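Our platform keeps sequence and structure together, in a single record for each protein. Such a record has a labelled line for the sequence and another for the backbone structure tokens. This encoding replaces a full spatial description with a residue-level series of whole-number codes. Below, we set out a record of this kind in full and without editing:
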Amino acid sequence: MSYKKKNFILLVIFFILTFPNVARAENSTEPNKWAKSFESYLFNLGPVTGKFSQLDKFGKLSKGKFWSNGKGSIKFSYLPESELIIIINDGLISVKERENGAVNQYSIKDSPISNLLSKSFSLDSFALKKISIEGNIGTIELRTKESSKRNSIYLTGDYPKPKLRQWKLIDAQNNETLVFFSKISRFDFLDENFFNIN
């Protein structure tokens, strides 16, 4: 075998063995890049409105409309026949089940949804960050405590260009709530009183 031919064969073997490894090394960074772009997307989302569908722990499906002011305040208004309104604002979640009913409030300062759609949202503020990508969908698991799934959230969005599609919240009582988002669009202005509940 000639010297040139031997070198050519060795070069081919080198490329076969090396390029797949390089590809895997590059691909291994993609989830982290996507997670950072998703974080930036949520950070810069601003005031938005859209539709949602919610699946609770009993399998009951509810639908409605939501608004976010981009500062951490979110309002969920459920479609009839339900009169339910839920507002996340200033570290509290306020729940009003009937138009003339009482308002129940609970602290969510330890919950991952307290700053979710706001300028205060940061992946680095969570104890555990698991990222998975399947096809054109990516999911980030965020925990407030690394050893427990309580008070954690799974954020799911489009890949590679992030767009919020759903979240699954696991609360302090280990109850799961799944919320799907659609027809998200920006708006210019909402009075801050819109996120108050009486």
